[in-house]
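Private note to self, pasted from the team thread so I don't lose it. Backbone tokens:
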């Protein structure tokens, strides 16, 4: 079998510094003799182009992937730029954000429909081990970074006259130590202004993301007794929850799959009046356009240059802001990329078999009995899911016609 060429595209999302492949994992793939790797130049990526070139990758100009051979899977992280209806005839490995009926999902997946018979999406969010656990996820660093940004937003607000100031542009940190040191330096002022120790509440605390958030709060200096660690048991009674409004920072880390009662709502906030402590909500899950979002108090994603958005309509209590950045781990891009890519590596090593096995049925759904066969099972399941979601989109389009 000829080596499979992986094509690492540059990231188009503003402020995105992470990479799906790192020089470390690229070298491990190359050392097998079963891969070649093409890397697009990217001044935004945390890893210098020269780091990839040093381990044997071929460098090409950025945004040249549309003309790459159709046999080269295109590897990336974040979604492609919006407002583009051009067909996608390549195999793409990425977070496409179109499988949970997010805003514009039909338009996104339809690009692969237009790219048949060769187009295929292996969505990174849905690559799963046999036990259903995700093969690789940025969850831990998302929670860690989300708790950090939330605390920085709290410090900026509480430390200002009338709590009118808002957190400005945030940039990546060299490492976790530098981030923790920066936040620790600001917590003393928060405590002095509040007249007590700050409190945090994390929902989804038993998952990767929640563990990251809890770990950050502990390392930053929050007292363990002041970190409420909630999961399914605590939320089973259904919200809204007064306990969230009693915290200073609330971090949502759940993986939403269906509609659930809201954790907080405009009505519950209004009912708390001036007894509310909550000043910052961090929605790490960032299901902003999902109609089932259990935090219906905001409607836009925030960004690294404008990390917070105010909650409108408050008539009592302190101002409240929401952090809804959908790529929080890029706050620690090198560490987050290395962890994610290392977890993805075992599956990538089976990709040549998956691509070869799929070749005879290009443009046709995989048979159910074939999905669980072979070491490349994870890719076959992702292939089957692609066809299911494409069928959902086709059905929805027919309803709208």
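Design output:
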């Amino acid at each position: 079998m000829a080596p499979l060429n992986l094509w690492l595209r540059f990231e188009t999302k503003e402020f995105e510094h992470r990479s799906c492949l790192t020089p470390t994992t690229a070298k491990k793939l190359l050392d097998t003799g079963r891969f070649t790797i093409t890397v697009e130049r990217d001044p935004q990526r945390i890893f210098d182009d020269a780091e990839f070139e040093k381990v044997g990758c071929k460098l090409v100009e950025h945004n040249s992937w549309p003309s790459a051979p159709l046999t080269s899977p295109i590897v990336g992280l974040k979604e492609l730029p919006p407002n583009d209806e051009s067909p996608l005839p390549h195999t793409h490995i990425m977070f496409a954000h179109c499988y949970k009926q997010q805003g514009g999902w039909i338009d996104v997946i339809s690009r692969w429909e237009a790219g048949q018979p060769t187009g295929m999406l292996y969505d990174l969010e849905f690559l799963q081990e046999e036990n259903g656990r995700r093969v690789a996820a940025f969850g831990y660093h998302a929670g860690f970074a989300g708790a950090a940004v939330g605390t920085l937003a709290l410090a900026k607000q509480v430390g200002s006259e009338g709590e009118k100031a808002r957190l400005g542009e945030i940039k990546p940190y060299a490492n976790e130590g530098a981030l923790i040191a920066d936040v620790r330096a600001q917590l003393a002022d928060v405590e002095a202004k509040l007249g007590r120790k700050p409190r945090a509440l994390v929902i989804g605390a038993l998952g990767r993301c929640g563990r990251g958030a809890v770990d950050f709060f502990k390392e930053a200096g929050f007292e363990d007794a002041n970190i409420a660690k909630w999961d399914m048991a605590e939320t089973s009674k259904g919200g809204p929850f007064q306990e969230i409004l009693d915290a200073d920072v609330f971090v949502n880390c759940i993986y939403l799959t269906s509609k659930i009662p809201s954790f907080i709502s405009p009505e519950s906030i209004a009912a708390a009046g001036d007894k509310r402590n909550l000043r910052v909500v961090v929605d790490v899950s960032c299901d902003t356009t999902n109609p089932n979002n259990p935090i219906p108090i905001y409607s836009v994603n925030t960004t690294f240059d404008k990390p917070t958005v105010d909650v409108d309509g408050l008539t009592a209590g302190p101002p409240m802001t929401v952090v809804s950045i959908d790529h929080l781990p890029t706050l620690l891009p090198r560490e987050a990329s290395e962890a994610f890519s290392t977890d993805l590596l075992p599956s990538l090593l089976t990709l040549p078999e998956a691509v070869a096995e799929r070749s005879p049925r290009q443009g046709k759904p995989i048979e159910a009995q074939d999905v669980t066969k072979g070491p490349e099972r994870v890719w076959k399941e992702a292939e089957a899911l692609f066809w299911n979601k494409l069928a959902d989109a086709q059905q929805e389009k027919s309803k709208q016609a």
